[in-house]
Amino acid sequence: MEQADNQENLGLDRGNSAEQQPLRATVLVIDDEPGIRKGCQRVLCGCACEVLLAETAEQGLEQLRVRPDIAVALVDIKMPGMGGLEFLSRAAELAPELVCVVITAYATIDTAIEATKRGAHDFLTKPFTPDELLHVVTRAIDHANLVRERNRLQAERQRRLLQLATEQSRLKTVINCMADAVLVCNAEHELVLYNPAALRVLPRVREPGRVYRLGEVLEPAELFALIGRACEARKRLSQEVKLVHLPEPSWVLADVAPVIDEDSGQFLGTVTVLRDITELKRVEQVKAQFVNMVAHELRAPVAAVDGYLSVILDGLAADPEKQREMLQRSRERLGALLKLVNDLLEVARIEAGAVRREIGPQSVADVIVEVADLLRPLAAEKDVTMDLCLSSQLPPVYADRNELVSIVRNLVDNAIKYNRPGGRVTVTAAPDGPYVRISVADTGVGISEEGKRRLFSEFFREKRPETAYIVGTGLGLSIVKRLVDFYHGRIEVESVVNEGSTFSVWLPYGEPVPERASGGEGFAA
Question: What 3-state DSSP class applies to 283?
Fold first, then answer.
């Protein structure tokens, strides 16, 4: 009878229920009265809802733990054990998206306020009809769907914001790590993004977060003009720009690209990338110097040899002694050309790492004596006296003999050529800590301070009246420096203009120890 009375109180009407729209949601009914539970189940199942039943609040919480997809909970306030209000608090912690509807036969304002504070969405007052039940549950399901969609959109927004922040951070890291300078400007020529490498052309930028007008902070003016032309033409422009405002002038290749919105065609700004081409310019300059030097060094001796041979072939020098003198001079000229070719090949082999070395213990004294004997005729021709001061306690240096000879020969050859008539060349060698020190001192024309800074670069020869007629390639000291560096030694020069120069080389002695990192040769004393 109780069950029948409860069903009657619900006002169950199958015809009315059949006219309702399908709800398609999971609803949990928590009530200690079996009639209420069964009546709600019958009405809601007829609207395509999945209905779960619980007799107590504790059972309802277990259902929530097992079925997190429950959208709506109908919960009675007065039940044995845990009451409906306490269930609301516990359910909010367990299922934040759950929408709760309170069922009560004791509807008061205080009860409504307390239930609302604890998260209740709506009320059903006993007794209620199927239409009232469906109306309240429909609104609750709609609200549950809105809550879930809102949470889904918020989670998607947070995910996309995090993804965007990650991409921005990654992009910023990439740009900041670029060796090329990057400048991004908007349509109003305001600097909106730049990396540390760009500070070379932004000497007046002092506050990182501040927005600057590009024309106020960009150097040089030529670069600002290039960006302006790219803005006006709306096309990509490239140009080599010299940075004259730096302590050491440098060159950059400026590539300016306009940014155009694909949909509206609106001009948004420019992106400028500056690549440092200073080294390339230096290489071009060295190549130009090389071509000029080779052309000069080749033309003079070739022309002289051609002239001597023409005189002999035309019969203008019938005297055998005269012919012999011309042939001797031709041989000397060709010897200078051969030395130039050998020096060029030596530099090329060192740079390419194609040098084949036979490293072993070498007597420094024997090498110096050999070089001195080889160059004494040149010293006699220049009226230069050569002295050797060699220690009797010289340890062997582990090196390739030909390279050791090349080091000493280039130093002594320069000391003779750049000396004065009646001058002197003194070659000394002695132990110095873990090194053998080889010094070549002369009483020649000396080297200026500027010359000393560029002394070991390729093809450098100091241009002074005293050196105008001295033949050379400018490669000898460069070769010496490369070889000394390979053997982990060092080279220094002391010089006073018009008084003379002293070149000192320190080479480590001891057996070589392979170095894993560099692949070169180390030394163990």
Answer: helix
Indicate the SS3 state at residue 250: strand
Measure the CA–CA gap between 205 and 198, rounded to whole angstroms: 10
Q: Which helix (H) or strand (E) holds 490?
A: strand 490-496
DSSP-derived secondary structure letter, 78: S
Q: Which of 187-191, 340-344, 448-452 has the lowest mean pLDDT?
A: 340-344
- Establish if 47 belongs to a structural domain: yes
Residue 119: strand, helix, or coil: coil
* Dihedral sign for Cα atoms in the order 305, 309, 311, 316: positive
For residues 287 and 213, membership in a common domain is answered with no
**DSSP 8-state assignment for residue 393:** T
Alpha carbon of residue 160 to chain centroid = 27
| Residue 202 and residue 302 in one domain | no
Tokens representing residue 375 in the block: 């160059």
Q: Is 127 left (phi over 0), alpha (psi -120 to 50) or beta?
A: beta
Determine the pLDDT at residue 516: 37
Q: Which of 153, 168, 197 is the last residue of a domain?
A: 153
DSSP string, 91-116: HHHH-TT-EEEEEESS--HHHHHHHH
- pLDDT tens digits for range 302-319: 888 888 888 888 777 778
Amino acid at 525: A
Residue 162 maps to a domain: no
Residue 449's Cβ-count burial label (10 Å; 0-12, 13-18, 19+) is exposed
Average pLDDT over residues 190-216: 85
Same domain, 9 and 112: yes
Instruction: Give me Rg for the CA atoms of the chain.
Output: 47
What CATH number is associated with residue 89?
3.40.50.2300
Tokens 């051969």 belong to 338
Residues 418 and 486 in one domain: yes
Q: Are residues 380 and 518 in the same domain?
A: yes
CATH code assigned at 389 = 3.30.565.10
Say if CB 27 and CB 70 are below 8 A apart: yes
In the chain, how long is the greatest CA-to-CA distance?
154
Q: Give the residue numbers spanning the domain of 241.
A: 178-276
| Relative orientation angle of helices 476-486 and 401-417, to the nearest 10 degrees | 140
* Domain end (from 350, 376, 409): 350
Q: What share of the chain is helix, strand, coil (3-state, %, to 5)?
A: 50, 25, 30
If one counts the domains in the chain, the total is 4
361/453 same-domain check? yes
Report if pTM > 0.85: no
What secondary structure does DSSP assign to 301-329, as a single string? HHHHHHHHHHHHHTTS---HHHHHHHHHH
Residue 503 reports pLDDT greater than 90: yes
Residue 40 token pair? 């709600």
